[in-house]
Amino acid sequence: MATILNLETSGLYCSVCIAVDGDVVASIIESQPNKHASLITLLIEECAKKADISLDQLDAIAICDGPGSFTGLRIGASTAKGLCYTLGIPLIAVGAFDIMAFSYAAGNKNMLIIPVIQARKDAFYYAVYNADKECIAMPKTCLISNVISEFQKMSKNAYTIFSNLNADISDCLDMFVSSNMIKPVDAAQMSQLSHKSYKKGEFREIIGYEPLYLSGFGKQF
């Protein structure tokens, strides 16, 4: 039996969940945006109380690896690393695009799944998955001005999964792919993937771990 604390801080809303063997036993999503630094510790304590599990009963901590908010990812990583080091348990990192693709029900074996996350007003992050949820093009950054060169070779069956994109980016992508809205990533969506990583022993080195920042938040292209 593996009890894992999952932390998601890559987006506007911080969320945490505790899962046992991949099944969520407690989950909390903060309703106030960009309150990661002040609320993440409180959310962890509240979630543990809700699950009736003490932190020293945890077998691992999983963090959303990004891409996403530079500040949010840094806060989540620091919190996860500190807890892992203190409790002497392993660190697991789950990619935001893996979570999005896993949450999407592909209806066509020939289709592509393209999770998209807004980076800034004129840019977004994306990756490409096949219908079996296997990543076939690693995460990268794309400017609106480069959409045609990036997407013109995509399959006609390609789909994009996104949340909270502005109109400029949505309109550009709609020229090439069908848009399917899904809810923003939250910690509960990580539970099965983090459990899978735990069973495989896919852990990150605690001290040296850095999230997948890519570009856009706090960096220049």
Please tell me about this protein's structure.
The chain is built from six helices and ten strands. Strand 2 and strand 3 (23-29) form a beta hairpin. The chain is globular and about 50 Å long. The strands form two sheets. The chain has a five-stranded mixed sheet, with helices on both faces. A five-stranded mixed sheet has the order 8-7-6-9-10, with helices on both faces. The chain folds into two domains: 3-96 and 184-200, Nucleotidyltransferase, domain 5 (2-Layer Sandwich); 104-181, 2-Layer Sandwich (Nucleotidyltransferase, domain 5). The protein is 29% helix and 29% strand. With 221 residues, it is α/β, with parallel strands linked by helices. It has helices at 36-51, 70-87, 96-102, 147-151, 167-173, 191-200; strands spanning 3-8, 15-20, 23-29, 60-64, 91-94, 112-120, 123-130, 135-143, 158-162, 178-181.
List keywords for this structure.
Nucleotidyltransferase, domain 5; alpha/beta; 221 residues; disordered C terminus; 5-stranded mixed beta sheet; 10 strands
Summarize the structure.
This protein is an alpha/beta fold and 221 residues long. 29% of the residues lie in helices and 29% in strands.
How many strand segments?
Answer: 10
Shape: globular
Structural class: alpha/beta
What is the makeup of the main sheet?
5 strands, mixed
Low-confidence stretches: 216-221
User: For this entry, what is the oligomeric state of its chains?
Assistant: single chain
Which range does the strand content fall in?
25-35%
Please, what is the average pLDDT?
A: 89
Helix content: 25-40%
Count helical runs: 6
CATH topology of the largest domain: Nucleotidyltransferase, domain 5
Tell me which CATH architecture of the largest domain applies here: 2-Layer Sandwich
